[in-house]
Design brief:
Elements (H helix, E strand, L loop, with lengths): L1 E5 L4 H12 L6 E5 L10 H4 L9 E3 L5 E3 L1 H11 L10 H29 L13 H24 L10 H16 L8 H11 L2 H4 L1
Parallel strand pairs: 1-2
Antiparallel strand pairs: 1-3, 3-4
Helix pairs in contact: 1-3, 1-6, 4-5, 4-6, 5-7
The structure holds glutathione (GSH).
Length: 207
């Protein structure tokens, strides 16, 4: 059985958990909890699985370890032979990859940098280097990305076009991370708010 090393309730693990549900694979993996708040992910045993010392990590039955949510989602999507999250045609795949990267760098990771640098983050023991100014700058980047995505959603129902994709998962979990970190959706982003309300009731997210 494949294994997912993660910590339930954290934002990056949530990305893979939603992808697993979208693919009907949630019950085909064994979850192994890595206690991130206590620093278990920084110990040698876990660094052997992921030198970046982050969760989640997918471990295949042959022992191959795959880190990075985008890479894990790509694998899961291809595994079933029927890609639904990362596109089928060259054009779909490229547009989804572009929007996924914009969402990840501009929103999800920007919120993460704000959280880790400009707030207490994971606490003094784990946050060994903080640059508050850089963190605050990334908050403005996250807000700008929310405004950009609001504009995107004025013309199309999902982040990368007419169909749900991995980019929607990244934006949805990025907004959840933003709530947790204290980054508000700017006033007037009604398209983004409506899209979010629609996502709230999607089975892979609601259940
Ligand atoms: N880009 C990575 C980010 C993974 C990540 O940062 N995960 C967080 C949990 S949400 C983590 O393990 N943080 C540990 C730390 O900051 O020490 C991915 O896509 O998986």
């Amino acid at each position: 059985m494949m294994k997912v090393y993660d910590f339930e309730g954290f934002p990056n693990p949530a990305r893979v958990r939603i992808a697993l549900k979208e693919k009907g694979l949630f019950d085909s993996v064994e979850f192994v909890s890595i206690n991130v708040p206590e620093g278990e992910h920084r110990k040698a045993a876990f660094r052997e699985k992921n030198p970046s010392a982050t969760v989640p990590v997918l471990e295949l039955e042959d022992g191959t370890t795959i880190a990075e949510c985008s890479a894990i989602t790509e694998y899961l999507d291809q595994l079933t032979g029927e890609p639904q999250l990362t596109g089928k045609t060259p054009k779909e795949r490229a547009v989804i990859a572009m929007m996924q990267r914009r969402a990840e760098a501009g929103l999800f990771d920007a919120v993460g940098t704000y959280f880790h640098h400009a707030t207490p983050g994971l606490g003094a023991e784990l946050e060994t280097y903080q640059c508050a100014e850089w963190g605050r700058h990334q908050k403005t980047r996250a807000e700008a990305t929310m405004r950009y995505l609001d504009g995107v959603l004025a013309d199309q129902p999902y982040i990368a076009g007419k169909d749900f994709s991995v980019a929607d998962i990244t934006v949805y979990t990025g907004l959840g991370f933003a709530d947790f970190a204290g980054v508000d959706i700017p006033d007037g982003c009604e398209n983004l708010a409506h899209w979010r309300a629609k996502m709230d009731s999607r089975p892979s997210i609601a259940n």
